[in-house]
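mind reviewing these tokens:
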Amino acid sequence: MCRESGLIKGIVPMFNTLVTTVRERAAKRQRYNRLTSEILGMTDRDLADINGNRTDMLRHAYREVYGA
């Protein structure tokens, strides 16, 4: 009985870490999708007004969210 209790005590933190990781990744993905949607929704005129480049903006959005 004691051995099983120790096993469960080891699994619970591992499960909590897994859940936390999944939530963080989902939040990052949601943020990235929101940013890319905004960028892709901009017209060429919008980009020209802010002197922006869509490709550079998408790359920056990725780095902003994922840090790579």
